[in-house]
Structure to design on (126 residues):
């Protein structure tokens, strides 16, 4: 089912898809308590990633919370194949480099703010 949605290039929210596919239509409860825990973990992880400025792709979210099997990504069925290990490592390196660059920019911005505040305080003294 997820593979069909991905194939249609429809914007999707993996945590919403997971919730819809793992709750009972009759009782609107999770089909298993573990499903509710995993869903909450997905939501928390994505919110934290968005707050840090680097939101996760739906595939990354699935990998981090559900893991992956050799032939398919959990939650995505037999649709998209997991990336190769080398490609995954290269992507991880790129993401780490981008995160480091963003952190450096944040620190520079913080220094600029502090310098601006000091300048204002010094002008108030005179």
């Amino acid at each position: 089912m997820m593979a069909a949605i991905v194939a249609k290039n429809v914007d999707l929210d993996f945590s919403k898809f997971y919730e819809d596919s793992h709750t009972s239509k009759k009782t609107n409860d999770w089909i298993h308590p573990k499903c509710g825990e995993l869903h909450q973990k997905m939501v928390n992880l994505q919110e934290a990633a968005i707050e840090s400025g680097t939101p996760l792709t739906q595939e990354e979210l699935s990998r981090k919370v559900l893991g992956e099997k050799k032939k398919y990504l959990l939650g995505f069925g037999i649709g998209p194949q997991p990336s190769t290990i080398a490609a995954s490592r290269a992507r991880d390196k790129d993401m780490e480099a981008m995160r480091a660059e963003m952190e450096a920019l944040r620190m520079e911005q913080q220094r600029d703010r502090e310098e601006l505040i000091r300048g204002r305080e010094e002008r108030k003294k005179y």
Remarks:
- Residues 1-82 form one domain.
- The chain has two domains: 1-82, 83-126.
